[in-house]
Amino acid sequence: MDVAIAGGGLIGLAVAWRAAQRGLSVTVVDDAPGTGASAAAAGMLAPVTEASYGEEALLRLCQSSLARYPAFAAELEAASGLPVGLRTAGTLVVGFDADDVAALDALLAYQLELGLDAERLTPRATRQREPSLTPRLRGGLAVAGDHSVDGRALHVALLAAARAAGVHLVTDRVAAVQVAGGRATGLELAGGGAVPAGTVVLALGAHSAGLPGAPPLPVRPVKGQILRLAGAAGLLSGTVRALVRGRHVYLVPHGEGGLIVGATVEDRGFDATVTAGGVHDLLHDAIEVVPGVTELELVETLARWRPGTADNAPLLGPSSLPGLVLATGHHRNGVLLTPVTADAIAELLATGELPELAAPFTAERFARR
Amino acid sequence: MDVAIAGGGLIGLAVAWRAAQRGLSVTVVDDAPGTGASAAAAGMLAPVTEASYGEEALLRLCQSSLARYPAFAAELEAASGLPVGLRTAGTLVVGFDADDVAALDALLAYQLELGLDAERLTPRATRQREPSLTPRLRGGLAVAGDHSVDGRALHVALLAAARAAGVHLVTDRVAAVQVAGGRATGLELAGGGAVPAGTVVLALGAHSAGLPGAPPLPVRPVKGQILRLAGAAGLLSGTVRALVRGRHVYLVPHGEGGLIVGATVEDRGFDATVTAGGVHDLLHDAIEVVPGVTELELVETLARWRPGTADNAPLLGPSSLPGLVLATGHHRNGVLLTPVTADAIAELLATGELPELAAPFTAERFARR
């Protein structure tokens, strides 16, 4: 086997698919593909509204990935025969008090400085775009370039496309990275046995740290709780992000009347509890932003973990262990960064060269500090 | 068969158990026993805190049933070998604004007038009894006589006790009351076939109206949404009912760390949707009353229907169709009224006489109006 990939989430499968397209033989190991962070992803493709000062290299990576999305989605839908729910209606950001509005202005200024497409709107103009928004909002910002995709549909399509491209899936838990002669030589399985491989890719998301055999990685679980609602057909045309008195909430329509409301950001280790407080805050803020949410059906509540890093950027490329490649630490940008991560890691696997765009994101940056 | 009972909820099974104890042969028909209103019951035994002016006959019935509960629960636990979770810690009623406190005073006056045990408490004394209550409450009322029972455990125990007493359970949907010669003669099953019986008991809860063969009954579904939380061990010693700026919420501890928060009261027909607004309001009010609820796990949300009547009282005893006995329409008091209903209907089935206590609750009262 040329490549063994630990983790069959969005990142692991997309890397597997792209690597297989380049003629490599690939095995993916995951005991329950699709039940990790992708199950709780809202699917926002939002490099602009997620942008922060001082993260320009990450912004470039995100923008490059967003630019790849239309072709990536089209190719994936053709290869899998399945829809991925790409929506290009743009994103509205709205605010409720003076501080929220000041934050909108700061975001606008930053976006214009970066040459990005963003437009400040009066409350009236904001509500003309999304009439279900509350009249109590104080201002808005339209970001045409921020889109969304259905995270669960994307996972299903990637699984089908990877299989169609010849990727082998082993349904077992990864127990360790096999190491021989100072080099990764495959994956050990919890159920016994191993997958020997020329190169190992670590794509275990929030579970990437602490894998026996692998070097220590600065990845921690960042808990997020989200809600899935139904009955929202016609309620919103695109994603709405809001600052409700300093608290962030987003509402992302998907499928036929589906609406995802997210997400809490909690440093609580691997705690999977859906809490009364988390659900309350999400419902409260969503209803404040779009009062009609009251009438929607609450279909599902769940909690998962983003793979967080100290600088909110992913770990891509070679690790300190020869033969072990990293594709993890995507934090809040896992769905967005799937295409560029897959392209960059597949390039590394096929040619030995990590594309320049991904170079700032090797694990070495933490060793240097 | 002496008796065929339509409905294997708390009422149907308790009637079956008591009737079998009196030597009658009994069959209960239900396609999914335990999945109706009992699944969403908080299990409050609260004739006093539920008491309203002008419902004195209902209050007497409720108090009589509450008085039967300790012996009923003990006998049921002995017969089934299963716990029913009777809690006798009493109930606290708390209020938040001036109107809420005025409502507490009115409730107190009514309770004292009825000779019931109730004690008005300062905010400080209220919190001494339940330290997890918010310091923001404005007043309290302690009602020692209002208890609780675990509605789901009660159903499981009744099913076991009824079976042990020789009750036959048919797992099928009731399609109609069989009528011959102007008299109920059994139950027709949706899956085909019938259960012939000397007397038929209608105990279908919210589904009691509109059964083919039965006379029209003034029972309508009254939707209630509740939440089940976990991790609440030690949070509350007994039931807390609250008026939060005019809105009612209750928190009922059960089992090991379980907490039920209820309930919405909605006239929406047979709509089983768990709504964002319903869950939000319950969480909001519960957190307002006991801030520590924020940290609890949200385990389950569900919606069921109470069998409502025009005067909030049950329909007990003979109907306009000879051979058809009613045991339905218990609205918010189904769990509480289970023992007295079972005793009264079993007495009627065994002797032909409805006890005086139940006489005000025949369906005739609606015909008279």
Describe it.
Two copies of one chain form a homodimer. Chain A folds into two domains: 3-80 and 151-219 and 310-368, FAD/NAD(P)-binding domain (3-Layer(bba) Sandwich), CATH 3.50.50; 91-144 and 221-308, 2-Layer Sandwich (D-Amino Acid Oxidase, Chain A, domain 2), CATH 3.30.9.10. By secondary structure, chain A is an alpha/beta fold. Chain A is built from eight helices and 19 strands. In chain A, 29% of the residues lie in helices and 27% in strands. In chain A, strands 5-6-4-14-15-16-13-17 form an eight-stranded mixed beta sheet, with helices on both faces. In chain A, strands 8-2-1-12-19-18 form a six-stranded mixed beta sheet, covered by helices on one side. At the A-B interface, α6 and β17 of A face α6 and β17 of B.
Most residues in contact, chain pair and counts: A-B, 21 and 21 residues
Number of domains of chain A: 2
The quaternary state of the protein chains shown equals homodimer
Estimated share of beta-strand residues of chain A = 25-35%
CATH superfamily descriptor of the largest domain in chain A: FAD/NAD(P)-binding domain
Radius of gyration of chain A: 20 Å
User: What number is the mean pLDDT of chain A?
Assistant: 94
| Structural class estimated from helices and strands of chain A | alpha/beta
Q: What order do the helices and strands of chain A follow?
A: EHEEHEHEHEEHEEEEEEEEEHEEEHH
Task: Work out the helix count of chain A.
Answer: 8
The level-1 CATH class of the largest domain in chain A = Alpha Beta
Enter the CATH topology name of the largest domain in chain A.
FAD/NAD(P)-binding domain
Give the overall shape of chain A, derived from the CA principal axes: globular
CATH architecture of the largest domain in chain A: 3-Layer(bba) Sandwich
Uncertain stretches of chain A: none
Number of strands of chain A: 19
| Sheet with the most strands: spatial strand order of chain A | 5-6-4-14-15-16-13-17
Largest sheet of chain A: 8 strands, mixed
- Straight-line N-to-C gap of chain A: 36 Å
Pfam families (chains A, B): DAO
Pathway (chains A, B): Cofactor biosynthesis; thiamine diphosphate biosynthesis
InterPro entries (chains A, B): FAD-dep_OxRdtase, FAD/NAD-bd_sf, Gly_oxidase_ThiO
Enzyme class (chains A, B): oxidoreductase
